[in-house]
Design goal:
It is built from 14 helices and ten strands. With about 400 residues, it is α/β, with parallel strands linked by helices. α2 links the parallel β2 and β3. The chain is globular, with a radius of gyration of 21 Å. This is Glycosyl transferase. Keywords: Transferase. One of its GO terms (molecular function) is transferase activity. It comes from Roseovarius atlanticus.
Length: about 400
Amino acid sequence: MADFHQNGNITTLHNLRTRSLDDLTYELTAFAETRKISLVLPSLYSELEGPALEHIVDELTQVPYLHRVIIGLDQADEAQYRHAIEFFSRLPQQHMVLWNDSPRMKALGARLEEKGIAPEEPGKGKNVWTCMGYLIACADTSVMALHDCDILTYDRELLARLVYPAAHPGFRYQMVKGYYPRVDGTKLNGRVTRLLVSPLLIALKKVIGDRDYLDYLRSFRYPLSGEFAMRTPMLPDLRVPSDWGLEIGVLSEAWRNLAPQSVCQVEISDAYDHKHQDLSPEDASQGLSRMSTDICKAIFRKLASDGTVFTPNMFRSLKATYYRIALDLLESYYADAKMNGLSVDRHKEEKSVELFAENIIRAGTVFLENPQATPFIPTWSRVHAADPEFLSDLKAAALQDAEEFS
């Protein structure tokens, strides 16, 4: 993917294959002397038993510039939490496993519920939000990186390239988004980005006209990637979505809070593979069906907040326009795959497009019925204003859990 194209909206930082990992690591280690770098790993307990996380931890043990690793552990009982502490114990950096289901953490959640500011649903968004709160409470980090725990193709160069733009003291970037090709050596992956987000953004431009926000989203080569780096002063005011719109929601928050010159995307891998969600056409509350609906709602909400007026007729036009564009792009992906010796199952791809088209209408209907609904978790600034002791109590609870069960 080496090129030097800039889209004019946000900066793209390419991998021109001219610099070694050792050289990047040496410079990051120097930056980290004065700008501490921490990594957040949102994890289900099941990922400790999967094929990816063991190797990710092996790679992280060789990263000298990381100050702290925060592991947010979901769906774990006491025995599994004890195992998680042991699993991550070989990390040489400071590290903390946040047991999100512990009695102490649940008590803190009840405290927020009494004030009406608790996250409404469990999931990755709540997990990331909790880890951010712990990091804010530590008050010793300049740069936070985040990536998933199911990356089968992980190596530590991914992390080095992800954090470099935010850690470099001479750069202006407050938020960094990672990108990569979604290929596994045999086929094209990344269905939701290829077959939903890309054609949907083109269709929205045709239906509602030019919007700076749409140009901004279209500037990202892989807007649904789970890899971010941020400078920590922006964390207290960052609204984190609790649904499958997390990645789009974070990009929208950067659009709301930062100048475009403060946002960049960086090429972090030549190949990227992780566990794949089922399409789940029979159950709209699961898999890629749920994900596609939540992503559409996230985009519609943001456009509405910027003044776009949506109607049922508009959503019907959007569905028809999207469907035609998605099928045209499918031809492009097919040709690209064939030229590179990769396979594309055109029947499955078209079935995905049909499902996504229906979910555009579903998301639009939900939005019109309740346009005020928002999945955003309250910012940590708001939590602190409502309960000034909460952040310190969150940190204390995590430490007490670790001391009691390790």
